[in-house]
Write a structure and sequence with these properties.
The chain is α/β, with parallel strands linked by helices. Helices cover 25% and strands 24% of the residues.
């Protein structure tokens, strides 16, 4: 299972911990805004949606600031995977 997470605040980290506990072999991709972002254990950082163009994502968790949700949703809709907001 592959999951995309947009935003890596405290809520995202809670989701990551829960997912890794429930699905030990889960692959988590984190959409990051800068390459100097903190790394998180067993999470692959990506910096552009182009990096997932040919990747099967099972669903995405949108956990960035609420003011960015509409923009993020619009960017993810073309990928046609479920969004958890």
């Amino acid at each position: 299972m592959k999951i995309l997470i947009v935003g890596m605040g405290s809520i995202a980290k809670k989701h990551i911990n829960a997912l890794q506990a429930i699905i030990p072999r889960v692959k988590i991709l984190a959409m990051r805004s800068t390459r100097v972002s903190e790394s998180y254990s067993n999470v692959e950082n990506i910096y552009s949606l182009n990096e997932i163009a040919n990747t099967k994502i099972d669903f995405a968790i949108i956990s960035n600031p609420t003011s960015e949700h509409k923009k993020t949703i619009a960017q993810l809709i073309p990928f046609a995977f479920p969004l958890f907001i």
